[in-house]
Amino acid sequence: MGQPVREYLLTLCVTAAVTYLLTGPVRKFAIAAGAMPEIRARDVHREPTPRLGGIAMFGGLCAGLLVASHLTNLKSVFETNEPRALLSGAALIWILGVLDDKWGVDALVKLGGQMIAAGVMVLQGLTILWIPIPGVGTVSLTPMQGTLLTVALVVITINAVNFVDGLDGLASGMVCIAAAAFFMYAYRMWFGYGIEAAAPATLFSVVLMGMCLGFLPHNMHPARIFMGDSGSMLIGLVMAAGAVSVTGQVDPDLLNVKAGGLREATHAMVPVYIPLLLPLTVIAVPVADLLLAIVRRTWQGQSPFAADRGHLHHRLLEIGHSHSRAVLIMYFWSALIAFGAVAYSANNASMWIVLGIVLLSAVGLVLLLLPRFTPRAPRWAERVVPPRYRRLARAVVDPAGAAAEAAAAEAEGEREPIPAGINGATAIGDRSRFVDRHRAGSHR
Prior knowledge:
Helix content: 55-70%
Distance between the termini: 60 Å
Number of helices: 18
Largest sheet: 2 strands, antiparallel
Number of strands: 2
Structural class: mainly alpha
Oligomer: single chain
């Protein structure tokens, strides 16, 4: 078991490193190419920010698959057509996203491109062959039924991730949490039960984690670059490919034999049932946001693809949560649902799992009802947490006198706004000191 873990860890590190190193040059390219759209009414950021972060993420995807193809325990995955099918569909959806980030693409055109990318993967063998139904058993699908179900699963997942990409670090963090939970489940299927058909989904989830981890440092608030549709649709497609692989390729009857009985197999297959209903249990939050958005816009007589400020993360901001706090709350709910489903499938004592989920849900509701509560870290941890959570730092950096003086200066109009720099960023909040230092150095 140790050798496969090391190989997965190497693949994860290579994917994350390549994505991280490529994001800086991609940001400069996006600025030079003018991929910095004006701020729209539904946006929550205050400054034009470059997009096209999906270019770096696609580079990380290619690097991760390339490294995995040369590793001892992972190269057997490439004897199947699934990695090739994933790369073909990812390339198509990535090109479509790049065009949309730079020039803008009509919503129906994007929907058609998503269906084409899903169809390309189906033609190369990445499709749902059967579905497990509780109480009925395994139901084999005709080629047409498998194609339609696969395309629907891919399109829903892509748009769910795309819809949730509205705050700095939100989409990449939530998908990373989802991929981590999905990896635990797929790895248990492969090495726990010896089902080799789960190997591609395990690899896809590791590569997806690396893509998100490598991009996340550049995308945390305040974000220096956005992934854009080229990134959000790409990671949505990779996650959907893993779901299709582990759901429609793994034979439930084989799992029944490996698990040792019907009852054990039913517990092991729980996370497989739910992906068929919600694309993925691990991204239930963005899928729920997608469904609510469609219902809301249709009820108001608008197109389901019309943008608005009614998403879950927008509502968290409206009730008083800060940008970072809203993101952390979404992380919490995603992790609760994702890892709760995995734990439920791995442990027969399901009642304790349900009680734990209920308890954590109550904690999450309390956090939602306290939007203006600012947590304080213990004194021994103040050196490793952001400055906003330090007791001493607040007393020194923001005394009452300095705050009153700053308010008076702003009221009298003495503080002039700082225009956007060549990198497309303005000095807002804590970032102003870096701009002031840069200006002081330029006058020397």
